Amino acid sequence: MTIEYGRPGDPNYGRNVALLPLGLGWCSGCQQELPLVEFSVQLSQHSGHSPLCRPCHARYSRDHDFRDREAALMALAIHEDNRRRTDGLRRCAECLQERPSVDFYRKGGESGARGHICVFCRGVDEGRAARHRENVALLAKGQRRCKACEAVLPLERFYHRAAGKGWQAECKQCMKARERERERRLADA
Predict the structure, then answer these.
(1) How confident is the model at residue 28 (pLDDT cuts 50, 70, 90)?
(2) Strand pairing of 2-4 and 19-21?
(3) Is 66 part of any domain?
(4) Which residues constitute the domain of residue 177?
(5) What is the pLDDT of residues 122-137, one digit of tens each?
(6) How many domains, in total, are found in the chain?
(7) At 111, is the secondary structure helix, strand, or coil?
(8) What is the DSSP-derived secondary structure letter of residue 133?
(9) Taking the model in full, what pTM does it have?
(10) How does 126-157 read in b/e, with b if 16+ C-beta sit within 10 Å?
(11) 44 SS3 class
């Protein structure tokens, strides 16, 4: 009995036409045919085993873990430094720049906890970051800017979010107007 799967270097690689005897597997790292006991079980693979033999997998993991470990140690040091700070600034673990705390999104669960990567490194443009800073300042005063009408209104004029965290982006009046418009379009259709 044979198991079908391709070998790197074969002209038909990936077409599952190369046949290996039962109990043997092909390591894509060392390019050798080895007994299946040399491979870890990986059910997501076609063969049911890892594409790398155990020694190749260990070598690959060791090389990549070393780089990941250095980055993790640096991020941990930045995190500890940020936790001790009381000046309202934080250091971004990505760009290493010091920024105001409001430039870091809140983390769920812990009260007042902030993330380690600033909004700019998360791909947020300057305009969106400025709006985020403004929203944080307005919330501290019990206000919010409506996304639809751009008016700064007290929080009582906004609905709570369904999940119970925060406020809707649009005021009650704008949400009701949008719902009336939607119902009118559905009635016309």
Answers:
(1) confident
(2) antiparallel
(3) no
(4) 146-189
(5) 776 677 777 777 877 8
(6) 3
(7) coil
(8) H
(9) 0.38
(10) eeebeebeebeeeeeeeebebeeeeeebeeee
(11) coil
